[in-house]
Amino acid sequence: MKIKVCGLRDKSNIKELMALPLDYVGFIFYSKSARYVGDDFDAEITKMIPLHIRKVGVFVNEAAEKILTLAKKYQLDVIQLHGDESPEDCQQIKDSGIEVFKAFQLNEDFQFERLEAYHKACDYFLFDTKSDSYGGSGEKFNWEILKKYKGETPFFLSGGIGIDDVEAVKAFQHSKLFGLDVNSGFERSPAVKNVVLVEEFLKSVRKKKMSNNKYAVNERGYYGQFGGAYIPELLRANVDELRENYLKIINSEKFQKDYKRLLDTYVGRPTPLTKVANLSKRFGTNIYLKREDLTHTGAHKINNTVGQILIAKYMGKTRIIAETGAGQHGVATATVCALFGLECIVYMGALDIERQAPNVARMKMLGAKVVPAISGNQTLKDATNEAIRDWIANPHSFYLIGSVVGPHPYPDMVTRLQSIISKEIREQLTKETGNPNPNYVIACVGGGSNAAGAFYHYLDEEDVKLVAVEASGLGVNSGETAATITIGDIGFIHGSKTMLMHDEDGQITEPYSISAGLDYPGVGPLHAHLAETGRAQFLSVTDQEALDAAMVLAQSEGIIPALESAHALAALEQMTFRKDDVVVVNLSGRGDKDMETYMKEINNL
Amino acid sequence: MNRIDQLFQNKGKDILSIYFPAGYPNLNDTVPNLKLLQDKGVDLVEIGIPFSDPLADGPVIQIAAKKSLDQGMSLKLLFEQLKDVRKTITMPLILMGYWNVVFKYGVDAFLLDCQTCGIDGVILADLPLEEYEEEFKAKFEAHGVYNILLVTPQTTDQRMAKIEKSAKGFLYMVSSSATTGGALEQSAEREEYFKKVARLDIPSLIGFGIHDKKSFQHASSFSNGAIIGTAFIKALNSGTASEFLDSLL
Q1: Which domain range does residue A139 map to?
Q2: What ipTM was estimated for this complex?
Q3: In this structure, is residue A256 part of a structural domain?
Q4: Residue A523 contacts residue A513 (beta carbons within 8 Å)
Q5: Nearest CA in chain B to A387
Q6: Which helix (H) or strand (E) holds A153?
Q7: What is the distance between the alpha carbons of residues A367 and B240, in angstroms, rounded to a whole number?
Q8: What is the CATH number of the domain that holds B81?
Q9: Of A165, A440, A454, B140, which is most buried with the most CB atoms under 10 A?
């Protein structure tokens, strides 16, 4: 829920407010308003506002030329039009590259059809109480009227909202509600806000967001209908022990301190957010790469293994079991086991052992025992089965899962440990563009851990489009694919209810992708939920498209991506962007481990 | 009365249960295997529904299940094979498998087919007790199909009480922390666990690691009987199933 505080003017009051986590602040450029900023409003005041707080200028029936001049002078990010402006007037402002909010005054007779002409020309609507003047009345309207609003444009709720409305706000549900606009309800005198009250309001309203998070796991491990812990009784005690401990450990001060220290000094975080100029030019937009390829061991996997090895250590475990597909998770696990002096057994499909030889050598050098899984297709799925069997036989071991799959609490635990990715993206984008939210976050999905990490802090930020990219192998309908969401349906694998590729008898299908890290027949339950609710868009990319995208990145930016990440990059070709869009691609790993495949597949190497 | 209850009422001791995968060693061997087992005096049979990813099974059962699948076995075909089974087989019959196969088949259709064929109970290795109780228990009971539950040495007393309350027929007492097919070693700790389960208000059979007459008798001394899977499959593989059963009884 975004919060906009409107009607500011007083310099020292603004300074105090800036310490609060506000999203928008509004300045009224309408001379008849009691909160009019005045003809001599000092531009230095708006300059002191941190970039991540968006500055809104409020105008009533003003000439576009004057609006744009003032927008420039006061560095306004948004123009809010509060008068009788037509859709064309709104469009004119929007065409200059500034965001447009159009305010409408509502009562029982409001004709919502009127809004249709405005959808394209406005970024957000603001619904206020009907009054005789153009300004706000300080009165609330009946929010039930908004049930009639079926449009696509998200809106701010405005009109007399005060500290006493916290419960009403929490109770009000509308899929397009984007934010709250507050003003006179928090004032000591016109244009002077009561900072303590605003702070209290922010805290109360945002608490709701934490508890009502639509995409958070529940206590039984479900994301919507997906997740759970569908495990044999033989594993129950092991899984219960972990479930009862993981949150206590992760939330402890000691863990947070140890984890942060390892991330900073061993993993190499924060990883850079690189704006890639040539790629940006190619797609006519602003493309940033989150450089997980620059972590120790060369992929995001290490964020998770560092976290889980600490959890294992706190739980007193000394023997670590892992499974691996591409070998990145195996290497990351072997690495942290070496660091902590723990026994490490890594199960890996016999076929993967063959095609990921450098990673196998790395794991062995790090002291891990690599055990080939010789059942099934001899890939990740089969390695996972073997690892689970080992855990059944050795209940005192710690099973260190490498993705957001498996029985609860693994999907949640791994998501939390990978969420460092989106946390850093937010901080870095705020510095870079003034806004923590990009327009798009794009990530590849096999099991889905790098995507879960890149999406995590944006799950409730509905203005950020989440794009998950699956591997379609030789094509989604070729029979040689790993595009689970695209061709799968509801099923159960490795302890989770999720989307799954299986035949009509419920036998799990062998997936295929050129990328060993993506050929998994299931997907994490969080992703199944994001797909079902439409929160994330799922695209799929073929082997060839991924190879092509890898070449483009290598030769235009000097970065050789992992084959997994190349899938995320290839999705850019399927999308269209506006020139001012901010697009973040999670570059989950580097391509060294895939050189053999690249050499075989790319003719001119 | 459910045939499982009848069995435990009539014969409280030394109950021998045998497991084999449907359609194994050859696709149409399901019913002939049942006839052999009944003729040899086996008390109870668990027919495995082959699954591509059997998490709780050891390599022998996994390889057998794969062969059976490769030969064209499916749950649908299994029910066709069992259509007339009650004309010749009077032993209680249990189907044992994994939840994904049943879910995909459709839980209602599965239970109806179980009832039609005269299946007395099922063991669904990865269907959690909580999900069963909340969503499916009423349906199972309406079709008279028992959901046989497992306990393991790691099962806490608290959970044991929950399982005891929900269980029907008998408890499948897993002998040790391992997948199927391991050896059963004797230990004081294990015997304590056996005795604890035996004190419960429901019969129990010990499974995992039972492979010959000696281990069968040892296990049976702590419970109502035992279950043999891997060792029987090995006997099927070597064509000595009949002799193996003779050696047990």
Answers
A1: 2-207
A2: 0.94
A3: no
A4: no
A5: B55
A6: none
A7: 44
A8: 3.20.20.70
A9: A454
